[in-house]
User: Fold this.
Amino acid sequence: MQADYLAGTFGLAGRTALVTGSSGGLGFAIAEALGRAGARIVINGRDPGRCDDAAGRLAHLGMEAITSSFDVTNDEAASDAATALRARGIRVDVLVANAGVQNRKPFLEISLAEWRALLGVHVDGAFNCLRAFIPSMLEQGFGRIVLMSSIAGQAAIPHIAPYATAKGAIGAFARAMAVEYGGRGITVNAVAPGFLRTSLTQGLQASPEFQRFISTAVPAGRWGELEEIAPAVLFLASPAAAFVNGHVLTIDGGLLARM
Assistant:
């Protein structure tokens, strides 16, 4: 009976989940968590070879995984991907817009092209994917969308102005979409991770000064791990979160709670 409760409350059997930027890193950890909950996974990234490798890793774990390689900054590519999946009889029930990049520079050293490129991946990428996949969610009267924000959207450190701006926009985008589509069976939420051990923070991880900051400013006293974010995404995608809409869930070890 306990297993039935867990499957009915947190399970994703019969659902298809597309996770952008899931050929590695946090995206792959999220894809694995959703796959373990029973979802068929659509791996996405710009490199078809890396996508194939990631899907193979999930298949080796006994999960159903396919690939859809496209650049989220290309609106036509996102739309074509949605059309191609539907032609195969695949409707995306869960969309996790995870693809992201970083560019650490003092503000006055950032070119307009660099500014637009970073916002293009985070903000335009989310826009393109929602535009591509919301129509089929509306047709079936069901959808779960999770966007990737950050604590940088609420508080910043130096040299991440474009990233902080993009992540703040993602939180606002999640609220706007939740209000617009909440009455039609679609929920839209975001998660806001704190400082994680990822490829985007390698420079910070190598800094003794920043390590001291982590150990003193984060109440948990440490970096977060990828596996500590993925279950929160699973929760927001699951039946357990059916009445959670327009929320930005912070997962930061208590950093933003500290004065």
User: Anything to note?
Assistant: Residues 112-140 form the longest helix (29 residues). Residues 2-193+229-246 form a domain with the Rossmann fold fold (CATH 3.40.50.720).
